[in-house]
Amino acid sequence: KRPAGAPDKGLARPVTKVGIVGAGLMASQMALLFARQLKVPVVLTDIDQARVDKGVSYVHAEIDKLAAKGRLSADGANRLKALVGGSLDKAAFADADFVIEAVFEEMKVKQQVFAEVEAHVSETCVLATNTSSLSITEMAFRLKHPERVVGFHFFNPVAVMPLLEIVRAERTDDATLATAFSVGKSLKKSCVLVKDAPAFVVNRLLTRFMGEIIRAVDEGTPFEVADKATEDLGLPMSPLVLLQLVGPAVALHVAETMHRAFPDRFPVSDNMKRFVEAGKTAVWTWDAAGNQTVD
Ligand code: CAA
């Protein structure tokens, strides 16, 4: 059955090569998924060789884990590894049909990335963004071909979470959207078409939910108590672990986007800001008197 709002699948264009801008954790997880499910070459790029190498090594190590679990034969693992490469030069995207960015969650950075990519790809190459909360319409604004821009939002861990939010921006055309749905289906994801609104659908809910837990902590509930109480409600993962999985900096960016859009409903915790600014990886601690501090 065609997902609600998806255009006729006959409009979808074939995808024979994928480019990924960014080689961080989310991007590397995406590279593995694209190569494994679409069986096409995937190229990761980043700002320096060390990052590119780290991304490719991550994918190769994950492929080894799949082989060790018996999910891939030795030959299959080698074939899959050969599909995933890295390059510092976006000219490597020249024959790509689908390029997705997963770089720093900053509008100007993403606009610049798309402008650079556009200089190297064909007129019909889809430019997808894995942004968690930013406006896709604004991201596409100054491009020569804004109609080929689409939101393609994965959830962490990419290999496991079934949901994919596909976002239609103001100028996205039907062929781009149909291609996005076709790729999402090949990736075996559950695709939903969502509006280009701040944080789309799911991160709105998650931000509110995490924000209220953080607020309870700011108001004096020990994090441990808030964390355990919400985990024992039956969630798949404790909020503290989820925050670390998503990355506190990403979670803060989403919270700030939501705050700009709906200041009354989405306050931003000062503790959370200080925590991210300090580059911390553990969340709150509290002293002997039970006062919360950002460690
Ligand atoms: N990468 C790859 N695979 C992973 C993984 C990871 N980081 N973590 C777990 N898995 C795989 C395991 O290998 C295992 O696979 P197999 O069954 O094939 O062996 C499977 O997932 C289940 O793992 P576990 O049994 O170890 O653990 P679990 O049953 O506790 O499930 C979980 C792990 C799926 C991550 C679960 O805890 C969960 O659903 N957590 C919530 C995650 C969530 O809410 N994500 C959304 C975050 S928001 C976001 O990402 C959007 C944004 O824009 C910020």
TrEMBL record:
Limits of the 3-hydroxyacyl-CoA dehydrogenase C-terminal domain: 200-281
Domain 3-hydroxyacyl-CoA dehydrogenase NAD binding: 17-196
Similarity comment: In the central section; belongs to the 3-hydroxyacyl-CoA dehydrogenase family.
Protein known as: 3-hydroxyacyl-CoA dehydrogenase
